[in-house]
Design brief:
6-stranded mixed beta sheet; 9 helices
């Protein structure tokens, strides 16, 4: 558990406070700040042997620049956003707020997902490891949301911050077709084969772009309710399992001239 002081309540499940660089660095070092691939803008996908590995997308140049600014005490105070994922606490409540003393306790077992500020967290860890005497405070928004609501937050951020169009659509989930694609990503042989960026990572086995797939489903199927979406999802799970299984050698061949592997 961790108790933060001078915390003010913004909404029922939203709080705000200042957190010093030492706390951020210690949380990062202890792996208590989590890069949740379900809510981050996009992952970097790599393939090693027969294993697909997802890693955080990191701009090393940005991290280096922010690290130097922190060490020089030139980084302007910027906000971070952490989400205490619901149903992760060992005690059932991720946050316990004391309105009288203005403290917020993050309970044991709570998974803190980084909603915004991953690069600044990396920079904090690096800068603090080089100079433990650093004195710097971040403003932090703490939320207690489901994955779906956290995705909506990222979607709203995408309106101001450039995010690949496909990933923005994926986070937004405004169509019934998006529910179908979400099912295909977890239940069918299209798992790890749907790309979030405009350019497919064929080395990692991606064969179709999220935006292309969702648009095709939206066009080809008359989905008027969530029940319809579930039915279409069940149908397409079986369809793609059969398609990819029957033509497994062609899908594994990495032949970009094969029409079966054409994105559209």
């Amino acid at each position: 558990p961790l108790t933060l002081e001078n915390v003010f309540r913004v909404d029922t499940d939203v709080w705000g406070c200042a957190i010093d660089i030492k706390t951020v660095a210690r949380l990062m070092k202890a792996n208590l700040l989590y890069y949740n691939f379900d809510i981050q803008r996009q992952a970097t996908i790599k393939k090693r042997l027969n294993e697909i590995i997802a890693r955080p997308t990191v701009n090393k140049k940005n991290v280096k620049e922010m690290t130097e600014l922190l060490l020089k005490d030139d980084l302007l105070p910027t906000p971070l956003a952490f989400n205490g994922a619901i149903r992760t606490s060992d005690s059932g409540e991720e946050f316990i707020y004391d309105s009288k003393n203005h403290t917020l306790t993050i309970t044991e077992g709570t998974r803190l997902d980084i909603l915004d500020g991953y690069h600044r967290c990396l920079s904090s860890l690096e800068a603090y490891s080089r100079n433990p005497e650093l004195n710097f405070n971040f403003t932090v928004q703490l939320t207690n949301w489901s994955t779906s609501k956290a995705q909506q937050y990222q979607h709203q951020l995408s309106k101001a911050t450039p995010i690949p169009k496909s990933r923005a659509e994926e986070l937004g989930k405004t169509r019934y077709a998006d529910l179908v694609v979400a099912q295909l990503k977890t239940e069918s042989d299209l798992k790890n084969r749907i790309g979030s960026d405009k350019r497919l990572n064929t080395v990692a086995g991606e064969i179709v772009n999220y935006s292309v797939l969702a648009k095709a489903i939206d066009t080809e199927f008359q989905i008027r309710s969530k029940m319809d979406a579930n039915d279409v999802g069940d149908y397409l799970v079986k369809f793609f399992d059969h398609l990819i299984g029957y033509f497994s050698e062609r899908f594994e061949s990495r032949d970009d001239n094969d029409l079966l592997r054409n994105n559209k």
